[in-house]
Structures are given as C-alpha cells and as structure tokens.
Amino acid sequence: MTEKLPHPVLGDRFTDAFAYAVHLHARQARKDTTISYLTHLMAVCSLVLEDGGDEDQAIAALLHDGPEDHGGQPVLDEIRKRFGDEVANLVDGLTDTLELEKPPWESRKRDYLARLQVEPTSVLAVSLADKLHNLRSIAVDHANLGEALWKRFRAGRTQQEWYFTALLEVFERRLPDSRNLPEFRRLIADVFGDKLG
Question: What is the pTM (predicted TM-score) of this model?
Fold first, then answer.
C-alpha cells in the first residue's frame, strides 16, 4: 500500500485572500493587454502550490502585487491585519518598492536581487513562481509579436535578459530543487536565445 502524501490545507484564510485579490485587481489588466491581471495571480498561486508551498505562500502569491500596484504601505498593513505577519512578511519580501512614485527600473531590480540573496527560501519560492509566470507570458507574446514585444516594457530586451539571467543565478543557488526551476531556465534560453547550462 502506498503511503499518502500530506497535502496543503487551504481554508477560509485562502478564500478571503482570493476575495481580497479580486477587490484589489479586478479592474486591472496585464501590461498592454486585455488579459485580466487576476490570471497572473492565480497562475502564480498554482505554481507555488505545485512546488510544495503552504497556505501562507499561496496567500502571498495571490496578494504579492497588491502593495506595489495599489497603495504601498497601507495595503501591506491591511494584508498584515487580515492575514498575519507571515503572509505580510512574504509579500514585503516580494515587493520591489512600496513607494507610489516608483524609483528607476534598474535600481529597483538591483535592490530586489540583493534582497533575494538573504530572504528566506519561502519568499524565493513565490518569487520564482512569479517570475516564471511572467516569463511564460513573455515567451507566448514574443512568439506572436517578435522583437516588437519589448516596446511594451519600461526596460528593453537587453535589460530584461540581464534581469532574468541574474534571477536565474539566485534561484539556481538558493532553490536548486524547485520544480519550477528547469522551466524557468529553458524559457530564458527560448526567449533570449542563449544556451544556458
């Protein structure tokens, strides 16, 4: 007889987090598309759970862009009040700025990369799921639009390649056994045309 594996318990907190994510993002679309932003949050949540994440990580996946996109510190404070310190700390670790007037793209990304060196692996697992889903979307759009795709981003192809490659280096070092890592590595090679390990 095969031993049953434990499975994550998703309860009322998860349901409440989903409703709060809808409240924050229901009128938001993904960059320069008509695709609901909620699709990204649900996909990231799914990737986190498929990679062995727990309920706190799943909730953080649903809420990870709330402070950055919809109000900064007050939204993070509301997440802490509703869902507890662990979720709020995860979301804070996933946020590259709480400033409503965002600093320049490259400095934000360099600061985020530096923080990922020391964040708990629970944060990194959600970050990898987030970046993987972003890269999946880029790969699909790149196949359809070609190099014109890069016009939709603040940072162009060269900067995006630098950022995703730097993220890969961090994830390979700190999350070598992640189920999401091989696909992330492959998509970087597919999108940017590099042969990576």
Answer: 0.90
